[in-house]
Design brief:
- By secondary structure, the protein is of the alpha/beta class.
- It is elongated, with a radius of gyration of 24 Å.
- 32% of the residues lie in helices and 28% in strands.
- Helix 3 (96-106) packs parallel to helix 5 (138-150).
- The protein has helices at 45-52, 74-78, 96-106, 113-122, 138-150, 168-183, 195-201, 219-226, 272-281, 296-307, and strands at 4-14, 20-30, 34-38, 60-65, 68-69, 81-84, 156-160, 187-191, 204-209, 212-218, 229-235, 251-253, 259-264, 286-293.
Length: 308
């Protein structure tokens, strides 16, 4: 069995108005991983998901899901996929249990009361099972969308902005569910505007810019390669300006003159000891030190800015 459950090769999508939404996409998704696809609005995230899920026709290129060509073996490929879209498309007059049960039928599978109850309980929807969809909050409706996708018992679950409009408690519960699904072997591909979620949850990160994959990397490697650390040096007395010997690229002085910030790569020789020794020799006294790491969000902003 291949380690990759999705393989995308040379994928293009050009719309009738000649807009090229996707260009030469080559991407493999590993079985059982959580893969975060990051990109600005209009970068091509939703189009790419739509192609893989069979909702959008590609102009050229191939996609295989579980070894099945998503065009030639559409039914077999689609049977492995669950999709939670951004839009809240639900029948407002059905209750929650009916919505999930009907979704199971749409996938061509026999009713399964045990699975239905398990999904409702996992999503904290059991108490709402008899409520009409129109009575639910936006966050609860999004959970129903996830429930619909899970009624297919998918091997691959796409989550397109799954926590948009969801409050903090529901968001936390949703990610607990995602962790459980991963433990069961489900492959999860997510897009999110909450980049801290990708930093917390994902195994690998992909960045898409103007319809092209610009980077795919292990999260830890990405953080190590592009991230950095800041050493905050809190001074005993106000400093009017940086000493002449300072490297202004790595060392900055706060507006109030009370804090020096030294930026360095965690993977390199830091030079902190030499810096602190030199400050002491200059008679610049400190009262405290603290460090902070670059976030994935800062890395993402820098990557997209550098490509623009």
């Amino acid at each position: 069995m291949s380690k990759d459950i999705i393989v995308i090769e040379e994928l293009d999508k050009v719309y009738d108005n000649d807009f090229k939404a996707l260009s030469k996409i080559n991407l493999s998704i590993r079985r059982g991983e959580i893969f975060a696809l990051l990109g600005a609005n209009g970068a091509g995230k939703t189009t790419l998901i739509g192609v893989v899920c069979g909702l959008v026709n590609a102009t050229s290129g191939t996609v295989t899901v579980g070894g099945y060509d998503h065009v030639k073996n559409y039914r077999s490929a689609r049977s492995l996929i669950g999709l939670v879209p951004q839009e809240l498309y639900l029948d407002p007059f059905l209750n929650v249990m009916e919505t999930l049960a009907i979704a199971r039928g749409f996938y061509g599978k026999k009713p399964d009361k045990k699975l239905l109850e398990q999904v409702l309980r996992d999503l904290s929807l059991w108490e709402k099972k008899d409520d009409k969809v129109q009575q639910l909050s936006g966050g609860m409706k999004r959970r129903v969308l996830i429930g619909k996708a899970l009624m297919n018992e998918p091997e691959v679950l796409f989550l397109d902005e799954p926590t948009a409009g969801v409050d903090v408690d529901l968001r936390r519960g949703m990610w607990e569910l995602v962790s459980k699904l991963k433990e069961r072997g489900t492959t999860i591909i997510l897009t999110t505007h909450y980049i801290e979620e990708a930093q917390d949850m994902a195994d690998r990160i992909g960045v898409i810019i103007d319809g092209q994959i610009s980077l795919v990397e292990e999260k830890e490697t990405l953080m190590k390669q592009f991230g950095g650390k800041n050493l905050k040096i809190h001074l005993a007395e106000k400093l009017q300006k940086l000493p002449r010997w300072c490297d202004e690229g790595n060392l900055t002085l706060s507006e109030d003159g009370m804090t020096l910030t030294y930026t360095y790569k965690a993977s390199e020789s830091t030079g902190i000891t030499a810096l602190l020794t030199q400050l002491k020799e200059e008679g610049i006294n400190m009262v405290d030190l603290s460090t902070e790491e670059t976030s994935l969000e800062e890395i993402f902003v820098n990557l997209t800015h550098n490509d623009s």
